[in-house]
Write a structure and sequence with these properties.
This protein is α/β, with parallel strands linked by helices. It contains 15 helices and 17 strands.
């Protein structure tokens, strides 16, 4: 292993609140020192210790690598026609998932993995260094377990989502499908996953079904997360808090009781603005959540139906423009917030001991991510101490 100092950083975002009045822990005229795959020092660039290598950041900003804590990347096909129709006036519903299920079942393992790696490379170029991804487009024991095996070759943050929708094969007997998801399918999938998720929504699974599914997963060692309150008010957020889910994702339609429950829990509210952009739905009110003291994450929800973007910078800009977040809050939520949604403290920060995942921006400040939306500002990406972009 060798050590590297990245110096001449205009603004370094550490996400160490002890360093600055802001939660971002900003250091101006900074340096960060990497030894192996870890950060070992941050501080004034002029005081950087001797290292084997030095890299001049050229007065650019450096932030932690983005942590995308919600994606659906094991799939085949796309839903261009559905998107086109929706942008022409047809409303979004959960039913379109069936189109992707059919294409995914028909694809080979090699096709699914090639598609996955394509979107991972795309996300990496945009600064994402950690990602979570789910099954959910197979909805049979064989197809769900193979999706998780493929995903697990590329990330530790793998989520079993057999409960995405009721399988078309069980359209007339949802109870039998819940029994499959909590029985044979769970047995096949649990060894390949860390998390279990359920789409708790009209047209998918109700509160009682969702509780049964998440409880069964937890008994098998999988920790809960949940698609909650995306399309309507529902029991998802309250269920997430009840079961100590790591995150409740979407959180668009919330009561005051939902907000209070999140604020007094360890459950992160993961907001997915790409979904609202792509469905012309109501924006989540991030300001309401933040002002109540809720921990908020930002993620892409990258999937072929309702949010076909792998760009966290794009989602960050949407959150600032349309969801009431400040640029500082959005950057924190896309880095440290995503790490919190995965219950990780080794990523999403640039502090001694953290994993050396960082992004160099072709700009002097992280604020440019929202200030210059759509501009490819990511100029370097380091993951585990190695420059990959």
């Amino acid at each position: 292993m060798s050590s590297t100092a990245i110096t001449n950083i205009a603004t370094l975002v550490t996400n160490d609140p002890s360093l600055d009045e802001s939660p971002l822990g900003l250091i101006r005229d900074a340096a960060v020192v990497i030894d192996g795959d870890r950060v070992v020092w941050t501080g004034d660039s002029r005081k950087a210790p001797a290292t084997d290598n030095r890299v001049d950041a050229g007065g650019r900003a450096v932030i932690p690598g983005f942590v995308d804590s919600h994606s659906h990347l094991v799939f085949a096909g796309d839903r261009t026609e559905e998107f086109n129709a929706r942008m022409s006036g047809r409303p979004y519903s959960a039913g379109g998932i069936r189109t992707t299920v059919a294409a995914t079942r028909a694809a080979t393992d090699e096709e699914l993995e090639a598609n996955l790696t394509r979107y991972l490379a795309e996300a990496l170029r945009q600064g994402t260094t950690t990602f979570e991804t789910k099954s959910g487009y197979g909805l049979t024991t064989v197809d769900e377990s193979r999706a998780l095996r493929i995903a697990a070759r590329h990330t530790d943050e793998v989520t079993y989502l057999g409960a995405h929708i009721v399988s078309p094969d069980y359209a007339e007997d949802p109870a039998a499908y819940v029994a499959l998801v909590t029985g044979e399918m769970l047995d096949a999938c649990a060894p390949h996953a860390r998390w279990i998720d359920v789409f708790c929504e009209k047209g998918a699974f109700d509160g009682d079904q969702a509780r049964a599914i998440l409880t069964a997963g937890r008994a098998r060692g999988l920790h809960p997360r949940i698609h909650a309150n995306q399309l309507s008010h529902g029991p998802g957020v309250q269920l997430a808090v009840e079961l100590d889910a790591a995150s409740a994702d979407h959180c668009t339609h919330l009561t005051d009781a939902d907000v209070d429950a999140l604020a007094n829990s360890g459950t992160v509210a993961t907001l997915l603005p790409g979904a609202e952009f792509s469905t012309r739905a109501e924006w989540p009110d991030a300001r309401r959540l933040l002002d109540a003291g809720v921990t908020v994450a930002l993620s892409t929800d990258c999937n072929p139906g309702s949010s076909f973007t792998s760009s966290l910078p794009f989602c960050l800009a949407l959150a600032v423009r349309d969801m009431g977040m400040t640029p500082d809050e959005a950057v924190w939520s896309a880095t440290a917030g995503g790490a919190a949604a995965l219950r990780r403290d080794d990523i999403g920060r640039l502090v001694p001991g953290a994993r050396a995942d960082l992004v160099v921006l072709d700009a002097p400040s992280h604020v440019h991510l929202a200030y210059r939306p759509g501009v490819p500002l990511v100029t370097q990406v380091w993951r585990r101490g190695v420059r990959e972009v």
